[in-house]
């Protein structure tokens, strides 16, 4: 499994989360509670959300008008590698893995205070992203909060 030691993720960055990893959701409680030093609302532009079976998929659109609402989570420094490994495992992400449902990519997000930050974002991978963009059920407004998860 990939983690902070992977050359593609050697720079510890916060994670932009938009679904079941957001504060108050089931996977946040299981994997992130007590393991972050900061959690702040943030927005990713150029992306849309699609319904998945109990969780959303983020697909990059390239349009600045499309936005996804989420949280910017900064793991505690001493736990960073473990948190990255746990999140990669949850998302089924393996660097370069042909069967990935999600890929982890570095993107810039806008913080609620107006500032910008680089973050890791899990996006729908390859053929899945194409299929969702063609036939998926889009989550209008780009906000998963309020759903069961």
UniProtKB/TrEMBL annotation:
InterPro entries: AIG2-like_dom, GGCT-like, GGCT-like_sf. It comes from the Bacteria. Coiled coil: none annotated. Residues 15-145 form the Gamma-glutamylcyclotransferase AIG2-like domain. This is Gamma-glutamylcyclotransferase. It comes from Streptomyces physcomitrii.
């Amino acid at each position: 499994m990939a983690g902070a030691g992977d050359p593609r993720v050697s720079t510890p960055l916060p994670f932009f989360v938009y679904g079941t990893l957001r504060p108050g959701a089931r996977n946040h409680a299981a994997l992130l509670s007590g393991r972050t030093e900061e959690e702040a609302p943030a927005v990713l532009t150029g992306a849309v959300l699609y319904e998945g079976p109990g969780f959303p998929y983020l697909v990059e659109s390239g349009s600045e008008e499309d936005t996804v609402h989420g949280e910017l989570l900064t793991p505690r420094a001493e736990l960073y590698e473990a948190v990255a490994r746990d999140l990669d495992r949850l998302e089924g992400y393996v660097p370069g893995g042909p069967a990935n449902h999600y890929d982890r990519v570095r993107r810039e997000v806008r913080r609620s205070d107006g500032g910008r930050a680089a973050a890791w974002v899990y996006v729908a991978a390859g053929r899945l992203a194409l299929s969702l963009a063609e036939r998926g059920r889009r989550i209008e407004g780009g906000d998963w909060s309020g759903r069961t998860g």
